[in-house]
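Researcher: We plan to redesign the surface later, but first we want a full-length starting point. Tokens attached.
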């Protein structure tokens, strides 16, 4: 084939932080399925400086720029390469992918499934590997003796009887015990010396054994569901299926160098047993609850988040986690270590995007469509600093299905009027926007109230819905977000799939918007977070739109957290405002009249949200639901926090199995599915429209 010709040429290869990028001469040997490189073209007749087997490799164009791509070999070795331009990158990537596919398929054709073979994973690999030289435990090793058998063609698999399921369950229990013995044996090894608990082969063995057990658990679960469906209607009343114990959690293995305890139920803290025994959400009332803002108190919780800093102490934990991940792998079902968690739920994080309610309310005060669009862009860009807590490299709790969060803000009308009256006059970077939080002695007529509600409406995929409204100003925002996370090598990317809708009912305008992606970088050294991607804001009625770019940092040079954007009138294609700066520092807005305004986000005062006390919250409201995890994190007790977190996750899995067994669909509380999105059950645009209709009828 013409596409299988050998190609060669110079590419830049990234070596390390010290050496950086270097030009090397690369040769794609299609016949052998090899990518080789040399110091230069003149040394091509010598032994290659490096060689990668392409069978089973993954060729990935980088999203950092249009020139870079990576070659990830099945052996785990990686080449990070850069072409001179996008066209040359595409040429190399396409040829490498064709060669990779050809040799990967050839291996599959030349190696048919084995008829019958037993092997021990502990005996595989290099004979010089210390993980092979030492035999950990006869019981642990015997656990990995696996037999491969092919069923005779034409024969049906007999339906498994209940007593067979019991036998399988017993065998599974024995296997889990042996797997725990293996983990203990590895973790009891010293932290230094010839053979340590951090040996790469042993870390891989731990990960493989756990993945094997999780896979077997999934298979057993499928058998139970199949058996239940076959027996439905013939079982005596009151008969229930005994489900398998929860899957092995990564958290069980997050502490290297010491034997882990696997306590019985009676040894668990009372709060953990309480978390596991809370009534199923499907048994609770799913009727929407009207929250009285007068019951909410100004939030006194001040959980300052320290950045992770260097993660040397947790390096073994991260290595253990990375050993199970593949490039591009969806992380939705991966249990992440507790030490990286913020002390708040993702639903509360969405609420913290509303921490400048004066700017939100002032949007509708814009005198013209142009001014209202600009005000929305200003509010949008100032929301990420507090919502993301700067650029803290931690993640909020993953909400469980049915979890909700309620809060509100009160904003003195005088301060909103002052903001509207000065028409966002220019500020110097050193100026601070002061917001009064003193509402004592003021009546309900003296302040605006912004109410917020969020709900986790789906578990797989993980989708959150949130809604905020200011009834007095006839404005509301409704959004749904699917957090889609992927493993990208030495970073983790989170795509916020979904759409938001801001409604200004006084003007009959609707603004659609999206959210940027988030990236956790340098996860093995000093983790940090940045936002990236292009987002659009659009108002069909007025013809105004905004395009905003969150720039990720290039390899060399450039600023962190940079953002640029522009607001334009689509009909005339006229740019009416430009913005640049850093989304967690200083933003500069330049208007068509030549004026410039600076906003220092680090000095922009935050209005505290108002939240009901824990004792008045429902069992599935975020703060009450996660209170034991949060308290343990505040005390610095990571092990206890992990135990509470695992209890909540186990309960969610058990509830999901129960719904599957009883064929009970999940019923949301506050949000309704409409097309591909989720909409609040009683949005302001419906209630205002109904009230206007009733008033018209009365007249």
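Model: Full-length starting sequence:
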């Amino acid at each position: 084939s013409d596409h299988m010709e050998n190609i060669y040429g110079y590419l830049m290869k990234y070596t390390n932080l010290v050496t950086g990028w270097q030009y090397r001469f690369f040769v794609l040997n299609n016949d052998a399925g090899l990518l080789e490189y040399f110091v230069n073209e003149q040394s091509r007749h010598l032994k290659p400086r490096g060689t990668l087997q392409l069978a089973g490799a993954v060729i990935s164009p980088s999203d950092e720029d249009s020139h870079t791509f990576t070659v990830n070999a099945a052996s785990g070795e990686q080449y990070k390469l850069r072409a001179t331009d996008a066209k040359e990158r595409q040429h190399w990537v396409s040829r490498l992918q064709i060669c990779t596919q050809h040799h990967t398929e050839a291996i599959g054709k030349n190696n048919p499934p084995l008829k019958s073979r037993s092997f021990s994973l502990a005996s595989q690999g290099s004979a010089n590997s210390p993980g092979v030289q030492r035999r950990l435990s006869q019981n642990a090793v015997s656990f990995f003796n696996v037999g491969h058998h092919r069923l005779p063609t034409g024969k049906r698999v007999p339906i498994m009887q209940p007593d067979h399921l019991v036998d399988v369950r017993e065998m599974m229990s024995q296997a889990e015990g042996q797997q725990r013995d293996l983990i203990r044996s590895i973790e009891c090894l010293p932290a230094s010396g010839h053979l340590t608990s951090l040996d790469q082969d042993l870390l891989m063995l731990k990960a493989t054994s756990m993945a094997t057990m999780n896979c077997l658990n999934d298979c057993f679960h499928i058998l139970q569901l199949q058996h239940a469906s076959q027996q439905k209607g013939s079982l005596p009343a009151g008969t229930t299926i005994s489900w398998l114990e929860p899957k092995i959690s990564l958290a069980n293995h997050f502490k290297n160098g010491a034997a882990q305890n696997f306590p019985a139920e009676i040894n668990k803290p009372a709060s953990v047993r309480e978390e596991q025994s809370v009534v199923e959400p499907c048994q609770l009332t799913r009727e929407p609850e009207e929250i009285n803002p007068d019951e909410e108190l100004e939030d006194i919780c001040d959980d300052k988040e320290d950045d992770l800093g260097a993660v040397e102490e947790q390096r073994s934990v991260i290595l253990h986690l990375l050993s199970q991940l593949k490039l591009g792998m969806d992380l939705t079902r991966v249990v992440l270590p507790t030490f990286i968690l913020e002390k708040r739920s993702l639903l509360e994080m969405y609420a913290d995007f509303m921490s400048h309610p004066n700017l939100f309310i002032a949007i509708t005060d814009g005198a013209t469509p142009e001014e209202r669009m600009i005000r929305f862009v200003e509010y949008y860009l100032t929301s990420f600093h507090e919502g993301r807590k700067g650029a803290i490299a931690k993640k909020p709790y993953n909400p469980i299905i049915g979890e909700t969060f309620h809060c509100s803000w009160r904003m003195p009308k005088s301060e909103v009027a002052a903001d509207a009256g000065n028409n966002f006059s220019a500020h110097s970077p050193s100026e601070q926007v002061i917001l009064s939080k003193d509402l004592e002695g003021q009546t309900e007529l003296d302040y605006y109230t912004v109410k917020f509600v969020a709900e986790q409406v789906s578990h797989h995929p993980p989708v959150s819905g949130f809604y905020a409204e200011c009834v007095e100003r006839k404005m509301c925002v409704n959004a749904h977000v699917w957090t889609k996370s992927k493993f990208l090598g030495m970073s983790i990317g989170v795509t916020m799939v979904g759409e938001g809708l801001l409604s200004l009912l006084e003007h009959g305008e609707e603004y659609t918007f999206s959210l940027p992606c988030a990236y956790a970088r340098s996860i093995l050294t000093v983790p940090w977070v940045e936002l990236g991607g292009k987002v659009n804001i659009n108002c069909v009625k007025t013809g105004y739109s905004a395009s905003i770019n969150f720039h990720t940092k290039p390899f060399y040079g450039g600023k962190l957290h940079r953002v640029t954007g522009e607001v334009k009138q689509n009909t005339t294609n006229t740019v009416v405002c430009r913005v640049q700066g850093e989304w967690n520092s200083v933003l500069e807005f330049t208007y068509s009249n030549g004026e410039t305004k600076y906003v220092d986000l680090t000095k922009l005062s935050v209005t505290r949200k108002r939240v009901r006390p824990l004792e008045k919250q429902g069992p599935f409201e975020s703060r009450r639901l996660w209170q034991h995890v949060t308290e343990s994190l505040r005390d610095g007790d990571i092990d206890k926090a992990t135990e509470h977190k695992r209890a909540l996750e186990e309960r969610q899995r058990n509830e999901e199995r129960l719904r599957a067994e009883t064929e009970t669909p999940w019923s949301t509380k506050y949000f309704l599915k409409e097309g591909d999105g989720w909409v609040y059950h009683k949005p302001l645009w419906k209630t205002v429209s109904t009230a206007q209709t009733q008033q018209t009828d009365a007249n």
